[in-house]
Write a structure and sequence with these properties.
Blueprint: H1 2-18, E1 23-31, H2 38-48, E2 58-64, E3 66-70, E4 76-79, E5 94-98, E6 102-109
Parallel strand pairs: 1-2
Antiparallel strand pairs: 1-6, 3-4, 3-5
Helix pairs in contact: 1-2
C-alpha cells in the first residue's frame, strides 16, 4: 500500500511549512491518472494524522482530470487511463498534459 508512504510524505511537507502551528485544513491536487487509490489514501490519512499537527485538519482533495495531446494529429483530448488512444486518429502516441499531479495546493493553520 504505497498510499501510506505518500500520506507520510505529505505530513512531512505540511509539518515543515506549519512551523509548529496546528493545521486547520489541507488542500491537495491529485490527478486522476495517478495510481493513488482514494479509499486507501483516506484510510491511511486518518491513521497517520493521529498525534500530529494535522490531527484535527480537514482534508480537501481536488481531482485533476486527465488530458493528453496526440503526437500524430495534434488533437487535445480527455483521458481516463494512461494508455487511452487519441480520440481523433486512434494513435497511442500521446503526451499526457495533466492528470498525474500530486501536490499540496494550500494549507490553513491556526
Amino acid at each position: 500500500m504505497h498510499e501510506l508512504s505518500i500520506v507520510m510524505g505529505i505530513i512531512d511537507v505540511v509539518t515543515e511549512y506549519a512551523q509548529g502551528a496546528p493545521v486547520k485544513e489541507v488542500t491537495l491536487d491529485i490527478g486522476c491518472l495517478t495510481t493513488i487509490e482514494l479509499f486507501a489514501f483516506d484510510m491511511a490519512w486518518k491513521q497517520a494524522i493521529k498525534g500530529t499537527l494535522l490531527e484535527s485538519a480537514a482534508l480537501d482533495i481536488n481531482r485533476i482530470e486527465g488530458k493528453a495531446m496526440c503526437l500524430e494529429c495534434g488533437e487535445e483530448f480527455t483521458i481516463t487511463e494512461v494508455y487511452d488512444a487519441c480520440t481523433g486518429c486512434g494513435s497511442h502516441l500521446i503526451r499526457i498534459a495533466q492528470g498525474k499531479e500530486l501536490k499540496v495546493r494550500s494549507l490553513i493553520i491556526y
